[in-house]
Amino acid sequence: MFGLKKYRFLDKTFIFGTSSLVLALAGQVVAQTPLQQPTAQALHGVVSKITIIGNKTVTNEAILNLMSIKQGTNLTANSVAKDIKSIFSSSYFQDVKFDLGLNGELIISVIEKPTVHDILYEGFDIVSSSSLKDKIVTKKYTIVDEKKLSQDLRSIEQAYIEKGYYLAKASYTLESTQSGSVNIVFKIKENRPIEVRKVNLLGNDYFSDSELQSFMVTKPFSWNSILTSSGLFRDEYVAADQQNITYYYRDNGYAESTVIAPISRLTRNKKDINVSFFIEEGERFNIGSIKILGDLIENEEEIKNKLLLKEKEIYRISKFNYDMKNLKVIYGDQGYAFTYIYPTFNIDRAKKLYNINYTITKGEKAYIRKITIEGNVKTRDNVIRRAIKINEGQLFNATKIEKSKSLIEKLGYFETVQLVQEPDQAHNAVDIKVLVKEKSTGSLSASLGASPDTNGSSGLSFFGQLQYQERNLIGKAYGVGANVQISPSPRGNGSVNYTLSLNFGNPSIYDGPWSFGTNLTTSLNEQSVTTSSSIEQVYITQTTNSFGFSIGREILENLRFNLGYNISETNTDPSVPLTQKFYASGRTEKISQTLTYDITDNYVSPTSGLFLSGTNAFGFELFGGQYKFGTMSGLGALYIPLDFSENYRTNFRIAFQPKYVYQTSKSNSVPYWERLTLGNSYYMKGYSGPGEALTTTAAVAISPITGQTTTFTIGGNRSFYGVIEYFVPIIPQAGLRLVTFGEAGTVLDDYDTFSFDKIKYDIGFGFRWTTPIAPFRFEWAFPIEQGNIGKAHFIFSIGTDSFNNNM
């Protein structure tokens, strides 16, 4: 163990080492001239040779480079003291001693500090040790350095401060190993986080406390603080709220309002803190006049009409900031990349008016000279370049550059995307540097679950799923996937139901507007159709093999058309004779046409924008198809962001999907496996239990002798589904979000008429976790029947979180 006392002893050793050399020098002089006092020349011994002993890790050259004494140097007490201090300052040694031997040989004896064998962590719960490894400057197999260890303690405590644990105290110990090295053990006493007891707002007359606190991050600790982390004191939260309050006032006409530096005071128990914000509101201003001066590329009134700030309206800083950017865009879209906009304010305090003059210097038109891409280790350049809407040699266009950034982000392959403009005003040129940071696009996942036996026993049935998805195969944006699902047969005879599916897609053939996709699926599904335990169980075994492909093309920006073909072979085998309608087998061929309009911000996990899709398909007879029918479906999904800060975004998702299947031939009915039901892990989750699905049924005779019947699920020909969801990031860095939702849906038969009393509802909450392995969903859904909330249904599923793909 090497503690603080040991290092203080080293200081004494240093003094002793210095003194011993002085005495040695004196002894040498006395031996040479025993009857004389030492002369100045005798005190300065000349170093004939330097020998270093005891060093194992640090080289001789490294030690010599720390010294001013060299071979041939005259020794003095000052030079010795200086060099010993220099060697100690390197932090590599725990003992250093200089001795002057015979014939002027300077012998330097060192004892190195031990090397670090391993770095261990004890007591770290709130902050994981894995998150600290990049912050710790002490590394394995290096020499112990107290300065670095002190820095590491500060880094650990800072990591806890960022979590609200201001009272956390870090320490370390050194544990010796058999090899002579040491293990560094970092220890933490976390204590409890400091909670905000009270938030005081002082000086606010126009806005109430509740209105200001509604958007503040600093809030008093409450019951929901565990989920949202609100209520814990953090310096950055207080600083952000100081800016937020100021911005809110200035965005409501108080152009000169300010918030004085907040005061935070610990309570006597040192566990809670009170935070006070002092607000100086000032006067409220309206807009007087707005003038556009300087170089005009359009009529002044035409430019003013494109601005958000209007004369006689309240001054809002958000609109002013937008107008500044918008003026740059207006000129930038005409090629003026070097436009300079200088705003001036003439304030009429008597009338409380802000008169704004924008003076514009447009400069020369510029062209895009070079576009470079950096940071894409996996993704090919061409995948990124086909999302860029401006080419080298073209006239500079600000809107196209910003659009390019959005389209690259929309791919979903990158954590961050930056388009950095590097202007060369002397040559009227702009270079564009695309900086990306890639993220994982592939996932391999396996899951195992259990549920009560479907055959009525008291045991458990196990089911499993293995899934592989890659959205950017070999960096070419190819999408591939494989999925295997296995579950027990309801007969309980050891047989299993299974589904195996494979898919492949290329979103841009030869970097053009055409796309291609294909899929292959095989399944075996055995289900019980008997609803009464008093009659013989009836089972239907259905096997299906299907193959499909689609070809798509972008018609206009964000508008795509897809033409698809699918052929499937279905074989249905009931355990007892049933009416042919309910166990029909045969081959189905379908051609589908889909029109999609997508202006969301991300293909994988959108938070803003609109997604619209309409699909029409019909069954036909070409390569042995046996059924003639049609299907139609539509989907509208609106994503509404709600930003609480620049880096904290929540969002709503509102979606609606109607579906319809119909006969195209009176002699050829729609096969029942093409009919509609609701009630699974994605739609109407509160009705996902056995026998709870929203569907239509028919009574079927299962015994011509006894006349026994059972209710058989046949599905409907129309379904309506809608959902409202609200997503709140809990740990944005980990992709963990809290979701609350409400769903509504119904399924109608051929001759049913729609009415609102046929709509079923459910509500619920859960967690969506987007991990590098796969997207996970953990949700609890509650059906609502006649105004009463029913029993919870727990939903666990693995798969994409985007309705654009699920619905």
TrEMBL record:
Q: Which Pfam families match?
A: Omp85, POTRA
Organism lineage: Bacteria, Pseudomonadati, Bdellovibrionota, Oligoflexia, Silvanigrellales
Where is this chain's protein located in or outside the cell? Answer: Membrane
InterPro entries this protein is in?
Bac_surfAg_D15 (IPR000184), BamA/TamA_POTRA (IPR010827), D15-like (IPR039910), OM_assembly_BamA (IPR023707), POTRA (IPR034746)
Q: Which UniProt keywords apply?
A: Cell outer membrane, Membrane, Repeat, Signal, Transmembrane, Transmembrane beta strand
Q: Residue ranges of the POTRA domain?
A: 45-113, 366-439
Please report the name of this protein according to its UniProt entry.
Answer: Outer membrane protein assembly factor BamA
GO CC terms in record: cell outer membrane
Task: Output the NCBIfam families linked to this UniProt entry.
Answer: OM_YaeT
The secretion signal range is 1-31
- PROSITE patterns noted in UniProt: POTRA
Q: Which GO terms describe its biological process?
A: membrane assembly
Organism field: Fluviispira sanaruensis
